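STRUCTURE REQUEST FORM
Protein name: Phosphoribosylformylglycinamidine synthase subunit PurS
Source organism: Kineococcus halophytocola
Requested output: structure tokens
Priority: standard
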Amino acid sequence: MGRVVIDVMPKPEILDPQGKAVVGALPRLGFDRFTGVRQGKRFELEVEGEVTPEVLEQARRAAETLLSNPVIEDVVSVREASGGRDDAGAGADA
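Status: completed
Returned output:
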């Protein structure tokens, strides 16, 4: 069984109140090196069999049609998941 990971972020010009709240809280918790935060969404789609280029293209179309709001969000990454559950930064944008 394969897995596709999709990352969706607010467009740069869209206000991100959750990100603003997080960046304000970080210094109070001792994390003083961060100057900006944008909060997005991550989806993990399971597929039967291998993750092929066709599967990735279908996942991208699903992300652009259903998983994101194209008025205020960008689909920034569609990729095959690595072996572990936490594959942040793994794979290339498709």
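Reviewer notes: The two ends are 20 Å apart (CA to CA). Helices lie at 17-28, 53-67.
Form closed.
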